[in-house]
Design goal:
The structure holds two protein chains of two kinds. By secondary structure, chain A is of the alpha+beta class. Helix content of chain A is about 25%, strand content about 30%. Chain B is of the alpha+beta class. Chain B folds into four domains: about 100 residues, Alpha-Beta Complex (Sulfite Reductase Hemoprotein, domain 2), CATH 3.90.480.20; about 160 residues, Sulfite Reductase Hemoprotein, domain 1, CATH 3.30.413.10; about 90 residues, Sulfite Reductase Hemoprotein, domain 2 (Alpha-Beta Complex); about 140 residues, Sulfite Reductase Hemoprotein, domain 1 (2-Layer Sandwich), CATH 3.30.413. In chain B, strands 16, 17, 18, 19, 20 and 21 form a six-stranded mixed β-sheet that branches. A five-stranded antiparallel β-sheet of chain B has the order 1-2-5-4-13. Chain B has a five-stranded antiparallel β-sheet with strand order 3-14-15-12-11. The longest helix of chain B is centred in the first third of the chain and has 22 residues. Classes of the chains: A alpha+beta, B alpha+beta. Chains A and B meet through α2 of A and α14 of B. The complex binds iron/sulfur cluster. Chain B: One of its GO terms (molecular function) is metal ion binding.
């Protein structure tokens, strides 16, 4: 039996800033995982990844990351993605800081 | 200290200008990431988890005040106001923007620094003993040889695309402070019975997935043969080294698979071929380089200030007892500045701290600073009378922690807080262990103990060589930490042995506490270090304290 497909988000790093970005429903990029599009169909996830990977002038290293539906949008399924979505744990730098300033 | 000549200067400027154009072309869309990536890596620019990371070489860990100040300036202007010193005597900036990097490289070039060959399959930053030129047990200052190798390997056309990265270290002491035996190639300056100096050449050491201790390739190489011999080693490796499997590409595997005797025979053959092409210019160059590393202009002054402070100030005394090492000049000391304040990130220094260290080096320490592979900063030449003033300045900026060589002087790689290759975090584990032992107020009683933590099997944190090593792994989607015991990065190099099943993130600090408290019960006397006790007793009693449940189960 085929294993159940874990939903995916398309993620990458911004070309200039290096910051973690996610693909949204309308094909733009957001810095917040909660605003990312969550794909539950494998073919669709692959198609959106190809779309993202082609944007080499905007992002670097696009890939599919496991995520789960949360109350206010996708949440990380693995701790690596949780760190990418938040920032380092030794300093209040990166996204956690940006979120506070927003 | 080595000063760039016109050629060095022009070379670095040209490289930076080239990279500026490459970044422009990348941003304009004229270079794809696939095309650009090898170019940025050649300039030390990585893409990490949250941002780019610029790795700057500090050749053989030596810096002057002006350079340290420039690192502080770069940290403030283009990064987050701090830098991370690594086990390869480099500094890493964790938050640069791609478009700022050419300016950062220009600012580095202004003080004769660069980020070349801090990545990629090339010969990396040549490292050395951080006590070089000051240590009581050294035959001579190893840095001129390290500088010769740096110049020879920089942009060497034959060695820009090796099968894998290649790390070289140089030492000249009885006591190995540069982890020579964990390097692809190590040069140890030695003296024979006739009183002549030569080189012992070690090859095939390395940590990572397959840890290996370096083997002696040549016990006593004549001095004039160094460059042709090292070049012969590289050529043999370049030809023989495996390129089919990244995990088998390092020279340690080439040595392991072919045997040290075969490698030696091939090197000798190649050496015989190329030796005649070395005209002796390299020896002249070495002499020129030597002139850049003179003995400091030692001052003569009374020692009263030191003695008074030592008698009357217990905080100073504790720092002096723990952080100072003997210097060849009896009126001097080598002072190690701990970047391991309890609860802080090992190896990190703020721009303010960098400036204070630069000021101290300039005012009191013959304008020299060193970075150790243990991620601390050293003032190698300090007249003892200046130590109380130095200590006071350090204290004011959180740099006076008296813990060198103790349980909280932990090596930790960036791990999953920054590194894209990580399988688990290392920094918070180090922070928590240090904080815990500080609470227990047992550090000084525990004595010498080296804990080293890596966030993945690549072992940048040298965990295999920790008396206690910790390796962070991803086990079914959660962080899990494996403990190794009995590793040693000194001249008696040893790879630690795995203690048993790993521990979860919230179990690892209590496990280390059990282990260290268990050692206090096991040791014969306060003088017996953790490593000595481990060597005397073997792993079993240590495993018993680490895994008390297993013991009860077996007894039942
Ligand atoms: S050991 Fe692994 S996690 Fe740590 S810095 Fe090296 S590659 Fe990154």
């Amino acid at each position: 039996m085929a294993r159940k497909f874990t939903p995916k988000v398309v993620t990458a790093n911004d070309l200039i800033e290096g910051d973690v970005v996610y693909l949204t429903d309308d094909g733009t990029w957001t810095r917040k995982l909660s605003e990312a599009a969550l794909f539950t169909i494998p073919e669709e996830a692959d198609e959106r990844l190809s779309f993202a990977a082609a944007q080499t002038g905007r992002v670097v290293g696009a890939y599919l990351a496991d995520a789960e539906p949360g109350e206010t949008g996708p949440v990380p399924a693995h701790f690596r993605e949780a760190f990418r979505a938040t920032g380092p744990s030794n300093y209040f730098h990166g996204k956690q800081e940006a979120a506070e300033q927003a | 200290m080595y000063k760039y000549n016109d050629f060095d200067e022009a070379f670095i400027r040209a490289r930076t200008a080239q990279f500026r154009k490459q970044v422009e072309r990348r941003v304009a869309g004229n270079l794809t990431e696939d095309e650009f990536k090898p170019l940025r890596l050649m300039n030390g620019l990585y893409l990490q988890l949250h941002a780019y990371m610029l790795r700057v070489a500090i050749p053989y860990g030596t810096l002057n005040a002006r350079q340290m100040r420039q690192l502080a300036y770069i940290a403030d202007k283009w990064d987050r106001g701090y830098g991370h010193f690594t086990t390869r005597q480099n500094i890493q900036f964790n938050w640069p923007r791609l478009t700022d990097v050419p300016d950062m490289l220009d600012a580095l070039a202004d003080v004769e620094m660069h980020a070349n060959q801090t990545s990629g399959n090339t010969i990396r930053n040549v490292t050395s003993d951080h006590f070089a030129g000051a240590a009581v047990d050294e035959i001579e200052d190893p840095r001129p040889v390290a500088e010769l190798l740096r110049q020879w390997s920089t942009d060497h056309p034959e060695f820009q695309f090796l099968g894998r990265k290649f790390k070289i270290a140089v030492g000249a002491s009885e006591h190995d402070r540069a982890v020579l035996k964990a390097h692809d190639l190590a040069v140890r300056i030695v003296r024979n019975d006739a009183g002549e100096t030569g080189y012992e050449i070690l090859v095939g050491g390395g940590l990572g997935r397959t840890p290996m201790i370096g083997k002696v390739l040549h016990p006593f190489l004549p001095r004039e043969d160094l460059l042709p011999y090292v070049e012969a080693v590289l050529t043999v490796y370049n030809t023989l080294g495996r390129r089919d499997n990244k995990y088998k590409a390092r020279i340690k595997i080439t040595v392991h698979e072919n045997g040290i005797d075969t490698i030696r025979a091939l090197v000798d053959e190649q050496f015989a071929l190329i030796r005649p092409t070395f005209s002796g210019y390299d020896q002249e160059l070495l002499e020129e380089i030597r002139a850049h590393f003179p003995e400091p202009d030692y001052v003569k002054a009374p020692l009263d200030a030191f003695e008074t402070a030592y008698e009357n100030d217990p905080v100073f005394r504790s720092w002096a007892d723990t952080n100072l090492s003997a210097h060849t000049n009896p009126d001097y000391a080598i002072a190690t500045i701990s970047l391991k304040k309890h609860g802080q990130t090992p190896g990190d220094a703020t721009s303010e701290q960098m400036r204070v260290m630069a000021d101290l080096a300039e005012a009191f320490a013959h304008d020299e600073l060193r970075i150790s592979h243990e991620q601390n900063v050293i003032l190698p030449h300090v007249h003892k009378s200046h130590l109380p003033a130095i200590h006071a300045r350090l204290k004011a900026v959180g740099l006076a922690t008296a813990n060198i060589g103790l349980v909280s002087d932990i090596i930790a790689c960036p791990g999953m807080d920054y590194c894209a290759l990580a399988t688990a975090r290392s920094i918070p584990v180090a922070q928590q262990i240090a904080t815990r032992f500080d609470e227990l107020k047992l550090e000084h009683e525990i004595g010498e103990l080296k804990i080293k933590i890596s966030g993945c099997i690549n072992a940048c944190g040298h965990h295999h060589m920790g008396h206690i090593g910790i390796l962070g792994l991803d086990r079914a989607g959660v962080e899990n930490y494996q403990i190794t015991l009995g590793g040693d990065g000194s001249e008696n190099a040893a790879i630690g042995e795995r203690a048993g099943p790993g521990f979860a993130y919230d179990e690892i600090v209590p496990a280390i506490e059990r282990l260290v408290l268990g050692y206090l019960d096991l040791r014969e006397s306060p003088e017996e270090t953790f490593l000595q006790a481990y060597r005397r007793l073997g792993a079993e009693p240590f495993k018993a304290v680490l895994y008390p449940e297993a013991k009860t189960k077996n007894a039942a």
